[in-house]
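User: My collaborator sent over this chain with a note saying "see what the structure looks like." That's all I know about it. Can you take a look?
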Amino acid sequence: NNTGGTDTTSIGINILGNPEIVFLDRLQVTNAAKPINIGTAGVNAGPDHLYITNMDIQSVAINPPVNALITATDGTNISSVAFRNIAGVGGNGFFFWDSTVTGGGNGINITFDAIRYEDGGLSGTTQRAFTLRPFSSATTVKFQNLYIGTQNTAFELRRVKNATFDTIEVAGNVAGQCSFDIINTDNDILFMHITSNQNAGCATVGAG
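Assistant: Without extra context I'll predict from the sequence alone. Here is the result:
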């Protein structure tokens, strides 16, 4: 990308349709407005067995940022997907999946492991570091070994079941932001080894 700070549309890696068994390993994606996009050929479609590992991901330095470093589009199913050993800087959050408009898009077996994410000090971020909003459910979701430096709430979960948070540090929040914003997620949520070292003006776990 040679557009620089005015770019809002470029995509680094675009994963479309219904791919089976995809590996992205040892890659660097920089200066894209949407570094990684996970799309769909229709409602309730998407990748099955997608592994994104050992990567350096940075967004274009537009302020305020528009897209998360990794975006799953509305209607996309996410099945057996893992994000491991990733350094991420910038963007409007690290991972954003809002599948509440088209009438489909759910998930199973989603893992985030060994990730360091920092928003790069960009002001005006409106999305959480990790946003998961499936249409009806996402089950067996694991967050482990994460460092999150963000000016926003770290996690927003909706309709997620059987989720585990293990060895998480959240830093850099500002007043009015929480480490966790969890609503309609009432089935087996496990927290272990959590450090919340931000200047937030509310409890660690949000309402709901």
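A starting point for your reply to your collaborator: The longest strand covers residues 20-32.
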